[in-house]
Every structure is written in structure tokens, then in C-alpha cells.
Amino acid sequence: MLNQAIAERLLTRTTQEWVQALNDAGVPCGPVYGMAEVFSDPQVRHLSLAATVEHPVLGSIDLVRNAVTMDAIPTVRTSAPDAGEHTTDVLAELGYDTEQVAGLRERGAF
Questions:
Q1: Hey, where are the domains in the chain?
Q2: Model pTM greater than 0.90?
Q3: Hey, which residues does 70 pair with through a beta bridge?
Q4: How deeply is 32 buried, as exposed, middle or buried, from its count of CB atoms within 10 A (0-12, 13-18, 19+)?
Q5: Closest CA to 64 of 55, 56, 73, 76
Q6: Dist CA 100 CA 94 (whole Å)
Q7: Rounded to 5 degrees, what are φ and ψ at 70?
Q8: Which of 5, 65, 75, 80 could form a disulfide with 51 if both were Cys (CB 3.0 to 4.6 A apart)?
């Protein structure tokens, strides 16, 4: 019942109007964006929070980078790996040889 009442009340104003009203009242808040809206946000643009990386399947994609930056250390260098993309490399670093990795793969471990 309460959720329904809140939902109905929220429909009486736009997201921007609610954000402004809440901020004016001292409540720190901001909109919750869909991915299509993230990169057009004025603050994201002003702070250069978008980083373009190459994805092996999707090609050139934009990602939101970490807001904390350090000189000479890029915060976004690559796209996120696909599930299991680095499993073989990680297992090798942990000391598994090629045969052991193949055995794990055959048994459906990854």
C-alpha cells in the first residue's frame, strides 16, 4: 500500500523536478539512469567520465571510468572480459599445467 502511494506521488513530477526538490530540501540525490542516459549526463561529460575501449566482439564501446584519477595511470584500459576469458591464464599462474587445465575443462569446471 505504501509503495503504491509513493509510486503514484512520484508520477506527479519529472525525475529532474524530484531531484531538484530533494536537493533543495537538503537530501543529496540524483537520478538513476538507464545506460542510454549515462553518457549524456552533463556531469559525466564535464568530468570526462566516459572512456572508449575496444571490445573484441562489440568493437568500440564507451564505459564509465572511475571518478578517481591518478597521473599516468589510466583508469580504464580494456573492456570487461567475457566469462572465463582468462581462466586458462589464471590457472597457469596458479601452477596448473596444460594437462591439468584440459582435464578441468573436460570435467566441465569451466
A1: 1-32, 33-79, 81-110
A2: no
A3: 73
A4: exposed
A5: 76
A6: 11
A7: -130, 140
A8: 65
